[in-house]
Request: fold
Amino acid sequence: MDTETVLAGFPVGGDLPVRRLGFGTGGLVGPGYWGPRHDDPERSVALLRRAVERGVTLIDTADNYGPDVAEELVARALHPYPEGLVIATKGGVVRTGPDVWHIAGRPEELRAMCEASLRRLRTDTLGLYQLHRLDPDVPMADQLGALLDLQREGKIRHIGLDSIDAAELTRAQEIAPIASVQNRYNLLDRAAEDVLELCEKQGTAFLPWFPLGNGTLTGDAGTTLTAIAARHDATPGQIALAWLLHHSPVLLPTPGTGSPAHLDENLAAAHIGLTEGDLAQLDTLA
Reply:
């Protein structure tokens, strides 16, 4: 895949074009996704604005990041939203403490969470609303039915799913149009490869979470990454992001960070042109 193709946008849901390298807001909240990351919220506000100034058009957030903190920061930093900026948020999970959460997928819960996100984000319509987890105690048709009702009311433009398998995606698509999938996927963790392949066939966006491996890019893999990075005057993390962009045209990584320098480093990964030899080496690491 050439650099021009890597830099090309992707139409989420067929009608929301975004640049493929976005920004995730998980890095703006504290450990365990609890509370704010920075004592001074203006640091996070400035980072969000910097991301958009640098060309990011996809912001990935969730109501339980904080909880509420990340969505409030997005609105504080970016509202009124510039034309072409897509805000993707998630509902269906209730967080009660650091790394403590439970699934809440009853229709009335999903409606309440979606409407709360609309208020926090100061918007009438959410470009992409993703079900953070399927609730095993609630029929899928009831959960997606609630989102379809919200879509018909104009409160959701497109529906997405988080952490699902290929069979669940196929079932879901029989109930509602699914514009995106958000599963764990990175250079070393490709357990969701079958889901990615299904997304490729159907033109569905795939937002990989933990795109940088959450600290796992070490050992033999780290040695290979370091060698390739040296050839491109890049960092191992940049190579891991560049590999995602080269690996599939439907992959839309949204790495998060609380650091302006790290943000710039991540965004620069979109301009790295990996060779066929680089890709062959990287493909063997999973």
Remarks:
- Residues 11 and 17 are 4 Å apart (CA to CA).
